[in-house]
Design a protein that fits this description.
Blueprint: H1 3-15, H2 23-30, H3 34-45, H4 49-67, H5 72-79, H6 83-94, H7 98-104
Length: 118
């Protein structure tokens, strides 16, 4: 698998963060098996596909919380199927609730989009 294909996978994930990106859909998009995509994604990016998607979603939520006035529940529903799951995951990863993050604006290091060089 080429670096170009991995970049295509990363672009696809970013374009589909709000649409519940799945390994199956991504594999169909790039034309490889789920197993091969999963293995190569982890090899090139350094984290498993599912973890990458999870951390990118929460990172996008941090940016929304800090840079917009969107309601927290709206942000939660963009990322997760329930507000409770969002709040629990957010607190586990960042140590702050979404509400605390919005009010206190702590210095949180977000999980940036991966870029690959040739």
């Amino acid at each position: 698998m080429s670096v170009k294909t991995i970049r295509t996978m990363l672009d696809w994930v970013e374009d589909n963060l709000e649409n519940e990106p799945s390994l199956s859909l991504m594999a169909d998009y790039v034309g490889y098996s789920e197993y091969y995509c999963s293995t190569k994604f982890h090899e090139y990016v350094g984290v498993p596909f599912k973890e990458y998607v999870f951390k990118r979603k929460l990172s996008c939520a941090v940016n929304e919380l800090i840079n917009t006035d969107h309601r927290i529940i709206e942000i939660a529903m963009q990322c997760f199927s329930s507000h409770e799951a969002f709040a629990r995951s957010f607190k586990r990863l960042y140590g702050y609730s979404p509400c605390q993050c919005r009010k206190q604006r702590p210095d949180i290091s977000v999980f940036e989009r991966a870029y690959l060089e040739e």
